[in-house]
């Protein structure tokens, strides 16, 4: 049984940018955490993207099958904060990600730092030149101007949001956490989500002397609007943001040590999804129009679904990697297990502690990652079914079915669906059988049962995300 638990979620954090996952970014503090703990190489979110992922974390359920982005909790949704509160934990949620301010998460203490995500539009008395052509950026000009105004008002690095989040979490530990009998702290940082606007010295580490357009908040669209050089620099801005986040994670971790909490506290670091930086000829997470309305949802390849999961336990194993397939509800079950709380029947995940302790080597046979089903009446969204060997894309109304042999084609560049329809069909049946096991509503199962269905030519607009 662990005394204290800290869960850190960093939004839009790609696994392949961490050096402990053989990635390209400089992140010594996360590296330290990984060396003192264990990492999982095949951790995949279940519900995609931001809000749905957090609903999975809070409930331990595959909520994409029955929950919308918004909406109230349902009777089956037993929240982990309730269980921790009843078990004598002091619970806190601190962050600047959008769901922190919108989800009724039942934590005793909630500290929401405003300013990230959608910004209210208001008239401006002046304009600030944009760093790139407006048609290459994601949002309407009014919001872009507000972001630019916010940017120029920052006096230094500490004014940015990731530093604010981890400083506030440090303050909570100072004033409350270290005095608590036991605590569960969830830190939810929106960075390194775009806009990517760290101090210039972070970007120059990866792409010095760049003089072209800067896609600091790129349009969510097929990537042909950006040049290869612009995409290269976009990746450098993102890497710079990752390195800045790492610095403030390090600040927070050092605080844990200085407060003599290190030997009593489990620390978990993860993310909700990645981001397409031109891979598969895509930029973003979905295709959006200029109002922020979803035009089309894209397949969820490894680029966007393989996210980091690092677990550091007091007196636990160190510097180890596990390749088992696991998902968001499994992380929730693991939190229960670490706290010594019986995993409730409502939780659909399995604890990873037997993997960490060496009791078992096999875990899940496959993972399902999906956009939410709540828009069924309008459009069946794509889902990904991943085993160690195969990635099967169920395209629904928006995409043609795809299949990739991950052993021969780990980057998923060669679609072998037509040559291996039998394998794809078997994976589709596994998908349907699994939906029944997780109590997916029958109406959603029925409309997905047909194999190799064709996408629709005329798609309705989806709801605002």
Oligomer: single chain
CA-CA gap between termini: 39 Å
Q: What proportion strand? A: 15-25%
Structural class: alpha/beta
Helix content: 25-40%
What would you report as the Rg, rounded to the nearest angstrom?
21 Å
- Biggest β-sheet description: 8 strands, mixed
- Strand order within the widest beta sheet: 5-4-6-1-8-13-2-14
Give the overall pLDDT as a whole number.
Answer: 92
- List the uncertain runs: none
What's the count of strands? 18
Number of helices: 13
**Which word captures the global form?**
globular
Key descriptive features of the protein:
globular; alpha/beta; 5-stranded mixed β-sheet; single chain; 465 residues
Would you write up a description of this structure?
The protein is an alpha/beta fold. About 30% of the residues lie in helices and about 20% in strands. It contains 13 helices and 18 strands. The strands form four sheets. Strands 5-4-6-1-8-13-2-14 form an eight-stranded mixed sheet, with helices on both faces. The chain has a five-stranded mixed sheet with strand order 3-15-16-17-18. Strands 7-10-9 form a three-stranded antiparallel sheet. A hairpin with a 3-residue loop joins strand 16 (about 385) and strand 17 (about 390-395). The two termini are about 40 Å apart. About 50% of the residues are buried.
């Amino acid at each position: 049984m662990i005394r204290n638990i800290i869960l850190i979620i960093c939004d839009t954090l790609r696994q392949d940018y961490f050096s402990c996952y053989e990635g390209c970014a400089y992140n010594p503090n996360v590296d330290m955490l990984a060396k003192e703990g264990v990492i999982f190489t095949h951790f995949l979110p279940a519900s995609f993207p931001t809000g749905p992922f957090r609903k999975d974390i809070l409930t331990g359920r595959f909520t994409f099958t029955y929950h919308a982005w918004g909406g109230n909790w349902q009777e089956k949704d037993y929240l982990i904060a309730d269980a921790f509160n009843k078990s004598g934990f002091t619970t806190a949620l601190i962050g600047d990600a959008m769901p922190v301010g919108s989800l009724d998460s039942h934590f005793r203490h909630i500290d929401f730092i405003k300013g990230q995500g959608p910004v209210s539009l208001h008239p401006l008395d002046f304009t600030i030149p944009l760093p790139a052509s407006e048609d290459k950026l994601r949002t309407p000009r009014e919001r872009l101007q507000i972001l630019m105004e916010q940017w120029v008002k920052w006096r230094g690095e500490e004014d940015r949001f990731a530093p604010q989040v981890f400083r506030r979490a440090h303050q909570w530990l100072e004033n409350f956490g270290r005095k608590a009998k036991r605590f569960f702290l969830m830190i939810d940082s929106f960075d390194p989500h775009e806009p990517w606007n760290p101090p210039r010295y972070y970007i120059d580490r990866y792409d010095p002397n760049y003089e072209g357009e800067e896609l600091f908040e790129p349009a969510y669209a097929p990537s042909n609007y950006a040049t290869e050089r612009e995409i290269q620099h976009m990746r450098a801005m993102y890497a710079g943001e990752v390195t800045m986040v790492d610095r403030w994670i390090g600040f927070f971790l050092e605080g844990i040590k200085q407060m003599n909490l290190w030997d009593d506290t489990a620390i978990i670091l993860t993310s909700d999804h990645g981001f397409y930086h031109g891979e598969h000829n895509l930029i973003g997470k979905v295709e959006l129009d200029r109002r922020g309305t979803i035009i089309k949802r894209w397949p969820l390849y490894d680029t966007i679904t393989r996210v980091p999961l690092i677990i550091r336990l007091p007196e636990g194993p160190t510097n180890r990697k596990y390749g088992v397939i696991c998902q968001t509800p499994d992380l929730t079950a693991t939190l229960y297990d670490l706290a010594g709380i019986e995993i409730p029947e409502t939780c659909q995940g399995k604890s990873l502690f037997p993997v960490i302790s060496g009791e078992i080597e096999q875990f899940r046979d496959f993972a399902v990652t999906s956009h939410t089903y709540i828009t069924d009446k309008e459009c069946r969204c794509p889902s990904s079914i991943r085993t160690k060997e195969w990635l099967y894309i169920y395209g629904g109304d928006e995409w043609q079915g795809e299949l990739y042999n991950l052993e021969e084609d780990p980057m998923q560049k060669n679609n072998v669906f037509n040559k291996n329809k039998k394998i794809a069909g078997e994976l589709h049946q596994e998908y349907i059988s699994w939906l029944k096991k997780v109590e997916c509503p029958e109406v959603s199962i029925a409309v997905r049962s047909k194999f190799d269905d064709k996408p629709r030519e005329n798609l309705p607009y989806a709801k605002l995300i």
